[in-house]
Amino acid sequence: MGIKNLKICLIAAIFFVLWGCSKSKQPTPVTPVPASLSFSALKVNGAYNGFNYQGVNNTPVIKVSFSAPLSHASVAGAISFNNKAGSGVTFSTSYLNNDSTVVITPTALQSITQYTLNISTALKSAAGGALQSAIAINLTTAVDTTNKFPLLTDNQLLDLVQKQTLKYFYDFGHPVSGLARERNTSGDIVTTGGSGFGIMALVAGANRQFITHAQALARLQTIVAFLLKAQTFHGAFPHWMNGATGAVVPFSTQDDGADLVETAYLMEGLLTARQYFNGAAAAETQLRTDINTLYNNVDWNWFTNGGQNVLFWHWSPNYGWSSNMQINGWDEALITYVMAASSTTHPITKGVYDNGWAGNGSMKNGNTYFNTVLPLGPAEGGPLFFAHYSFLGINPNGLSDTYASYDVQNKAHATINYNYCVANPAGHYGYGANCWGLTASDIESGYTASSPTNDVGTIAPTAAIASLPYTPAQSMQALRYFYYKLGDKTWGPYGFYDAFDLDNTWFASSDLAIDEGPIIDMIENYRSGLLWNLFMSCPEVKTGMKTLGFQSPNL
Asked: What region holds the Glycoamylase-like domain (predicted)?
């Protein structure tokens, strides 16, 4: 064999070896992985606002777009639409943009209800790619603005609200004591301060003939007879009592004795009733005598805790003064100092008022909030019950002392509260000129004293309605809205329920004595001044308030 042929054979051999090796080591074919699916756009009724939408209509059109066409077969299992309680909502789907946009349309949502549209990672593209991250879209539907009840004149509406609210104190009053239950679920627990507000409600109700004079008198006789036998501490009553036995029910561990502020609210009501039931018959004469006994039994001066120039809120037979809670202004407790100074048996001196309540002027504010100067109290006014509880009886009109003009104070407080809600800096759904009022009330998770500096999104009808004497136009506007527009959710057997939160579509089912009482009582003061006139006619009150340095045409 020649050299040339040898080379050819050698090259051929090498070729076949290499060909055999490459054939035995071919790579395993790889199946292509579909590209993952990602979210790209969202519109609810044609607008994008992140993933939270409020004030949505009941048939919104929701368009969710993705990076690739969708697998229709995966949509049903990947999309769910539920309300806050977890119940499913019926919806239809359609497609746009070459199937990369799914259009979700619920059949019919309910007004003022929270819904969540969830799209899980089970959603796939037409090519089989899975959604990278789940999506949750939160929607809150709008208030149904149709009227829930027939239209009334404003006077008819005020009559209705007062009459319905009176039922809490008269129809639902404790069957043994006649006192006001703390709330509509309290059983035998009655509230001292709320009962004082309720006594004034009975007077207003009798005067408007919602109940008869005789019915109101009989209920007051029951109440007073019970109070004369109930457990007291240096004449002062506890915050809560058992309405059947009169025994103290502890409000908290160390609050198991006297509550001087609650006692003052009770006496505010009792003295008002004493002035109303002024007949010469034996029943009314005895009622007045018994009310005087209850008032005169309170050793107001003893609550200076050894002669300090301040009143103390609590005293406990088990813990003494350990709660150490002084009654300092400005808050809801002005009436306590007025009642204490007005006592003919155990009065306090002006020094206790000036040093203890007024802090020698430290309760002054003077700052401007929402273009309104606030004379007294905390920033932006605090909760509105500051302007209500003491002033169910004390008439602020024309009332002044060294520290403030009290009609100016209360009007400023209510106006600031209103303007804060209209401005709505926290962005709560529903706040505005129709829907305002921050005060102490139930909230979805418990109870709080709402105010511009503690705004959790909860509106309490008592706040705006009880401010009628201060902001009549704004308060009446709110009252109409609560009744006509929200009344299917806010109106119950005892008038307005305690509170609501449109952000979270929560509506209380509770009634609280301390919130119901100011509604009927302050409506009455707005309409007739009845309760103001009665309380301010008390000779002791005239003397006591003058002693403290108050000036008023009503003194």
From this structure: 325-539
Evaluate whether 337 touches 348 at the Cβ level (below 8 Å). yes
CA–CA gap between residue 339 and residue 393 (Å, rounded): 11
Sketch the domain layout of the chain as residue ranges.
39-141, 154-547
Asked if residue 463 lies in contact with residue 515, where contact means CB atoms within 8 angstroms, the answer is no
What distance in Å separates the CA atoms of residue 411 and residue 417, rounded to the nearest whole number? Answer: 10
Radius of gyration (C-alpha) of the chain in whole angstroms? 35
CA-angle at 166, arms to 185 and 168, nearest 5° = 5
d(CA 551, CA 405): 10
CB 406 within 8 A of CB 396: yes
Long-range contacts of 171-176 (CB under 8 A, 24+ apart): 172/494, 173/198, 173/219, 174/243, 174/244, 176/226, 176/243, 176/244
Measured CA to CA, the distance from residue 529 to residue 24 in angstroms comes to 106
Per-position pLDDT tens, the chain of length 555: 444 444 444 444 444 444 444 444 555 665 556 778 999 999 999 999 999 999 999 999 999 999 999 999 999 999 999 999 999 999 999 999 999 999 999 988 999 999 999 999 999 999 999 999 999 999 999 999 999 999 999 999 999 999 999 999 999 999 999 999 999 999 999 999 999 999 999 999 999 999 999 999 999 999 999 999 999 999 999 999 999 999 999 999 999 999 999 999 999 999 999 999 999 999 999 999 999 999 999 999 999 999 999 999 999 999 999 999 999 999 999 999 999 999 999 999 999 999 999 999 999 999 999 999 999 999 999 999 999 999 999 999 999 999 999 999 999 999 999 999 999 999 999 999 999 999 999 999 999 999 999 999 999 999 999 999 999 999 999 999 999 999 999 999 999 999 999 999 999 999 999 999 999 999 999 999 999 999 999 999 999 999 999 999 999
Instruction: Decide if 140 contacts 55 (C-beta within 8 A).
Output: yes
Alpha-carbon gap, residue 125 to 251, rounded angstroms: 61
The identity of residue 46, as a single letter, is G
CATH topology of domain 154-547: Glycosyltransferase (1.50.10)
Among candidate residues 553, 414, 514, 546, the one with its CA nearest the CA of residue 196: 514
Helix ranges restricted to H, 321-430: 334-342, 350-351, 406-423
